[in-house]
Amino acid sequence: MSGGSRDWLASAGAPLRGRIRVPGDKSISHRAVMLGALAEGSAEIRGFLEGEDTRATAAIFEQLGVRIEAPADTDRIVHGIGLHGLRGSGQVLDCGNAGTGMRLLAGVLAGQAFDSVLVGDASLSKRPMRRITEPLALMGARIDTGAQGVPPLHIRGGQSLQGIDYDLPVASAQVKSALLLAGLYANGSTTIREPHPTRDYTERMLAAFGWPIEFAPGLARIEGGHRLRATRVDVPADFSSAAFFLVAASVVPGSELRIDAVGMNPRRTGLLQALRLMGADIREENPREQGGEPVADLVVRHAPLRGIEVPQALVPDMIDEFPALFIAAACADGRTVVRGAAELRVKESDRIATMAEGLRGLGVEVEETPDGAVIEGRAGREVLFDGGEVDSHGDHRIAMSFAIAAQLARGEVRIRDTANVATSFPGFETLAARAGMTLKAA
Ligand code: S3P
Hints:
Layout: E1 8-11, E2 17-20, H1 26-38, E3 40-46, H2 52-63, E4 67-72, E5 75-81, E6 93-94, H3 99-109, E7 116-119, H4 130-138, E8 142-144, E9 153-156, E10 165-167, H5 173-183, E11 189-193, H6 201-208, E12 213-216, E13 219-223, E14 232-234, H7 239-251, E15 256-263, H8 270-277, E16 281-290, E17 293-301, H9 322-331, E18 335-338, H10 351-361, E19 366-369, E20 372-376, E21 385-391, H11 396-406, E22 409-416, H12 428-435, E23 438-441
Parallel strand pairs: 2-15, 3-14, 6-7, 10-11, 21-22
Antiparallel strand pairs: 1-22, 1-23, 3-5, 4-5, 7-9, 8-9, 11-13, 12-13, 15-17, 16-17, 18-20, 19-20
Helix pairs in contact: 1-2, 1-3, 1-6, 3-5, 4-5, 7-9, 7-11, 9-10, 9-11
The chain binds shikimate-3-phosphate (S3P).
Residues 27, 100, 172-174, 177, 198-199, 319-320, 343 line the site of shikimate-3-phosphate.
């Protein structure tokens, strides 16, 4: 979707200073479009992430007959057509790079009267889908995958779905959400238990759209046969996008940066706790609620970091933040150990391998383990990183993480294949440069 690869050249910049706002939350934006489409009435979404992933989801619902207006870049009005209003388009539905889009849509489409085919880009086409197709099959869905359980997904319509009682083998909000969305179309109730609580946006948003749902950390239960009623959704700024700036301002001496109105759902803010254990200086100001979600302004100042054993209980709450955490670890004093994070191997890239390869290229000692890594921090050296070349493997979060490392490098760092940054963080380069970082398209 992103129009091929594109490189960045990044090098030592100024301290990060001033006040910034990062784009809207990706997880919430996907769900707002989906529930808005299936609701009765028109849902107004404010603060929508204008990224490629969420635009792909919106485009798919348009293909399925939903009218979506964009009165401004970050606003959408989704004219819902009700739970049974979608119409098959006869064409493949392209989720781009978005695992969230594909997995949640599979849940929705399993309950339709028509057949669908979901495809994705090269990275998404390698990601595991059996984690959703197997439990959906238990509900009565018929979905064929490619060999080894990867996309495309061929979803047969016209199946009668039954609720299930399911213990998730991995802590995954995407799997939980796919099953809950299929559960809207199922007879009886669907109960999902998680080995560790994951982000609960689907549950919260179903409740906001008027669907009766019972949920608590680690558990969600709904029954089919109700209706969704359109409502307004205020999307907070994405903590995962703020994360790059939290790490950058922590590690670049002289930095003091304010990030406005960041979503602070506790299922997303594990990195904040990990950084604080490392000695980071991050203040939360003006804590408040926005559209039912906690938000706060974050003020981050440079501070010396020390290596830690990342508590395994934090892993699901910071699952998207490990690329940034690896950079913080490489800048710290002493060793950082990550365990219990095997899920990183099946994200937009194998994030353990990609980060280890990139860090080694910049002179950092990293040991890969099956479910994590051991990173030797380089604090105390005159220059933290060598210049050179890093391949992001088309993974947006890897590219942005190495842009941070480059701020402390001797010489230039070429970061390869960065076009996919637009999937989650359009305008990252401009915002990073405004904050003080040196980064340009090559
Ligand atoms: C997401 C859940 C997480 C996360 C992804 C977004 C979501 O994936 O990594 O970026 O919106 O539900 P898993 O649920 O597979 O861990």
